[in-house]
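User: What would this chain look like folded?
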Amino acid sequence: MDEWLKDVRIGVVGLGYVGLPLAVEFGRLFPVVGFDIKTDRIAALREGYDETRETTAEELEAASRLELSSDPEALRSCNVYIVTVPTPIDRHKRPDLTPLISASETVGAVLKRGDLVVFESTVYPGCTEEDCVPVLERRSGLTFNVDFTVGYSPERINPGDKEHRLPSIMKVTSGSNEETAERVDRLYGQIITAGTFRAESIKVAEAAKVIENTQRDLNIALINELAIIFNRMGIDTEGVLKAAGSKWNFLPFRPGLVGGHCIGVDPYYLTHKAEAIGYRPEIILAGRRLNDSMAGYVAGQLVKTMLKRRIQVEGARTLVLGLSFKENCPDLRNSKVVDLIHELGDFGVAVDVYDPMIDPAEAKREFGIEPIAAPEPGRYDAILLAVAHSDYGVVQPERIRDFGKENCVVYDLKYALDRNIVDARL
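Assistant: Here's the prediction, encoded as structure tokens.
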């Protein structure tokens, strides 16, 4: 460990899905202050409980040099700050930089000469230097690249994935000058076993991150459109994808709802910046429109299947399995299952939601949805598997029809159930 690293004291600002694993890994090696504005979050972490389920109590305990705090003054002792706050979109699908600017204000208030600030939040190219740095300068009274420097290392956390975790995912790094870029790369190299990739500039690193999820979004949009076409032709989409997948270079994407705080959000950051410089993106926005429309399409497909079974749709009771935005993850942010539930409600369908992974109080607070504690056997006219958690507790995949009436429709949105017990799927 070189001389600079020996003096490093890290402040991680934001302890969510991204920040907490980072604070824990660094907290094994360096003095780290993990800061979050949510006092209840800090209290729970001090007790060894991580509501995101990304970090265990044992891992928190092993981070022996980690201090947890909701007091911004605790950050004053640090000389490296890593900002890992969310970057959502507003209701008009425009970037909402409020958390990022607020975090920059917090860091700027304690920033000192010689300090380094690294941003990990997903942004459009140019945001770090054009939006965040001016806040740091104004709040601290210091001059960028003279008194302090900045780096950018985009997060690549995959919530719910227990195989690809922070140390085993290659990290892109960058800095505002040559020396800073080298320092940022060496710092992350202490905890990333998969290695680092040093980008030539902060803007390149920002762009690399934002296109990762844009690419996935477009690929899923293509498969979603193919699924719509094949459904009209009476062809099983999964069968088509399995056949096509027999070729070595066919990409294994599957249709579905595209939500969450990454794939369903990041493309809007890129298109916002593109429009700001006078270019109207066509393909990216077309993919977003199609993916955003899929909840309505799935609801319509379920209702059509019910009508074919001569099931009275108005007042029919449907069990929706899963509310989080993806499998084996309690995160509800930007979950498109919520849109699906609203679409079914527009048809007059009564919906019960069951998801043992999530916090029911959060679902009630954020969406006005009250998940049930457990579904009742023989109660439902339709059952829709929306999220393929590996463990649904009382609902066993092979016995899923036990919760429906005799003429019940089972819709598999995730291709997770045996084809013989499914009436329809995307």
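The mean pLDDT is 95. If you want, I can go into more detail on any region.
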